[in-house]
Amino acid sequence: MRFENSGSPENPATKNATAVEVCDLSHRYRVGDRTVTAIDGVNLLVDDGEFVAVVGPSGCGKTTLLRAVAGLLTPSSGRVRVLGKTSRSARQDRALGLVTQDPGLLPWLNVAANVQLTLDITGRGADADKRVSELLERVGIGQFAAYVPGQLSGGMRQRVALARALAHRPRLLLMDEPFGALDELSREEMRLELLRVWEDERTSVVFVTHSIREAVLLADRVVVMNGRPGRVTAEVTIDLERPRSALLEDKPHYQELVSRVRNLLFAEPVPSNASGQVALGD
Amino acid sequence: MATEIPGPQTQRNVLGGQTFGNILMIAVPLFAAALLLGVWEVWVRLADVKEYLVPAPSAVFVALSDEPGRYANAARLSLTAALGGLAAASLFAFILAVAMAHSRMLERALYPPALALKVTPIVAVAPLFTIWFGFGLAPKVLIAAMITFFPMLVNTVVGLRSVDPSAHDFLRSLDASRWQVFWRLRVPSSLPYVFAGLRIAVPLSLIGAVVAEFLSGSAGMGQLILVSNGDFDTPALFGAVFVLAALGILLTVSVALVERKVLFWHDSSAGV
To answer: Model's pTM, two decimal places?
Structure first.
């Protein structure tokens, strides 16, 4: 099941475009005098407007995949297309938003200025004040605009990070374990917050996580990565209705999907001759 | 963008303890200094120490109050040289640090001469500067700059490199230019290190100026010490030392206050 509302309304030409297209992506890096292969022959397709979660154990190369999509690293081989272009030119179009586990806010700027920074850099400063306060309201920290990050809790900092990554209306939001460093209650809260915000902003999302429940709750499709080097070993379409809420977790179908993903994650090791996807979940 | 919600800084006032704490912060060191001078005074009087060896603090204050203009003028000259040298060194160190932080190759090329400058004893080059530049301000500024350059350079290089990788990734994801990354991220990130450098360099700059005066005999605190020493006027010499100590403390406290204002966001600003 793919989502109807794809493509931003002000740009109908982009409809049905592919947000992310990764073909046979491999990346090796050197550690001392050893060469480590982080990911090997990874394929990934993300439709425009689709929310895709990438799940996998630590060290399976999820972050490497995301960084390659963001153009933050140059892969050893393979092809990455973002919105039909190289990730570099997608970035130059200011089409990317990035949220990482460590929020990386600028500690000397207050919350509003941190969000404003995105608009300054991307040159979308028209009506900036309005956009900033609207975003801060949306992520639930409107009354903390004048605080500096050092005065905020981890969950609140991550809200600022989300607001600033969305400020310039990117068409692709890349999230790398954004709630990984938060306590369980804040995580829970932030997932629902993200769902709400995403319903409003409707960008394409690649969401890297090692939480199965998080992936199923949020995504349209869950991509399972496994092994060292990491490969995509399965994917599961999450045909749960939207808008979703916390109540979903009690539904049998949700639990069924969670255990399906879990079984795929802990399935027997991938045969070494596998090239990319060996099992498709659906 | 301002809201009415008070930040934690203002909330601290509610406790009412801050004013008392501030008074204590100033009162305790003053009391300690007074105690030290008191013990000194009593010791000199009881042991009947000769004034040309160690004068009593009261004798030093008499020497200071006899010719306040002489001390003030010398202090002004030394301070000008020290701050001028520090400013020149900081500026030059910043320019060089930018180059070095951008390229490891440049760092390797520039580090040896910078280190050579650091290990050169100023006592050895000061006479040379006097020959080259005379007895005016220039050689003093140059020596103060020479002595403060290295700590400023090293700290600024480290500071410009110490950028939060997540913040850097985020700016890159927005396709920020190198220029934007530099001014918006690198320079503010370097400030805690720059201030750490200043805390070392500020007292050094004063030492540099005084040593230059001492060696060349040009007017300032160093010359005042030199002359007092020649005259066996030990109270005047101690007066000069007192003035220098006061200047050093004043400069250090000023830097700490500015640092606290500028680095309100940084852990280091909690203590002075």
So the answer is: 0.83
